[in-house]
């Protein structure tokens, strides 16, 4: 039973290199990702560097290295630097557009449910989610939020895979409690609007 749940989690995450990275199947790559994210966060957040200056300096160094490599290769009859063909294929753009279209349509459907259908449950859920995001946004800046998100995405899935049964049980209990509270709020708001209409 444990192996089937692990396979399903791996398949849920895409089943490829990204799933291997997130679930720590290739420990060296995952550890390098954690170390790299921590280094980037430290560089920008604690050391005080700005993203444009770091990118400009890195590109300046890369261009200088490629230029001098090409010049020295022509003088010493050595091979030129091996550069891949630098272009984005139509297939990649179409896949990205298709995925973006799905998410945009989901957001528009939620907006339709709130504005046209006047669905109170969707409205309250959206308000609660936006309030939580706003509250968390007040506690951290954007770069720290991205860093926390990367750390969660690299550390939580392996723990979930290891303790999946216990986590599912606790999440199910929390979901039922939250659903009851949400239903109570929705029913109370429905009663108050009915009372206002009768008055």
Structure description:
It comes from Oryza sativa subsp. japonica. Keywords: Endoplasmic reticulum, Membrane, Transmembrane, Transmembrane helix. Pfam families: Reticulon (PF02453). InterPro entries: Reticulon, Reticulon-like. By secondary structure, the protein is mainly alpha-helical. It has a domain at about 10-70. About 85% of the residues lie in helices and about 0% in strands. The protein is built from eight helices and no strands. The chain has helices spanning about 1-10, 15-20, 25-45, 50-75, 90-115, 120-140, 140-160, 165-199. Helix 6 (about 120-140) packs across helix 8 (about 165-199). The protein starts with a helix and ends with a helix.
Short description:
This is Reticulon-like protein. With 199 residues, this protein is an all-alpha fold. 83% of the residues lie in helices and 0% in strands.
- Count of individual helical segments: 8
SSE order in H/E notation?
HHHHHHHH
Helicity, as a percent range: over 70%
Q: What global shape is seen? A: elongated
Measured distance between first and last alpha carbons: 59 Å
Protein name: Reticulon-like protein
Domain Reticulon: 18-199
Organism: Oryza sativa subsp. japonica
GO cellular component, one term: endoplasmic reticulum membrane
Describe the secondary-structure layout.
Elements: H1 2-12, H2 17-22, H3 27-46, H4 51-76, H5 90-115, H6 120-139, H7 142-162, H8 164-198
Brief descriptors of the model:
199 residues, mainly alpha, 8 helices, elongated, disordered N terminus
């Amino acid at each position: 039973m444990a192996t089937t749940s692990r396979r399903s989690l791996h398949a849920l995450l895409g089943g490829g290199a990204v799933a291997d990275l997130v679930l720590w199947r290739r420990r060296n790559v995952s550890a390098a990702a954690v170390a790299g994210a921590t280094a980037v966060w430290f560089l920008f957040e604690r050391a005080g560097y700005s993203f444009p200056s770091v990118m400009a300096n890195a590109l300046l160094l890369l261009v200088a290295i490629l230029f001098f490599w090409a010049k020295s290769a022509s003088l010493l009859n050595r091979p030129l630097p091996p550069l891949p063909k630098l272009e984005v294929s139509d297939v990649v753009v179409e896949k990205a557009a298709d995925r973006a279209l799905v998410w945009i349509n989901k957001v528009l459907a939620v907006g339709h449910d709130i504005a046209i259908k006047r669905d109170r449950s969707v409205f309250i859920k959206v308000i609660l989610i936006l309030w939580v995001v706003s509250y968390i946004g007040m506690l951290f800046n954007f770069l720290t939020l991205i860093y926390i998100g990367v750390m969660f995405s690299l550390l939580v899935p392996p723990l979930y895979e290891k303790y999946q049964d216990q986590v599912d049980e606790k999440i199910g209990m929390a979901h039922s409690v939250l659903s009851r509270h949400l239903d109570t709020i929705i029913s109370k708001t429905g009663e108050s609007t009915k009372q206002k209409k009768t008055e």
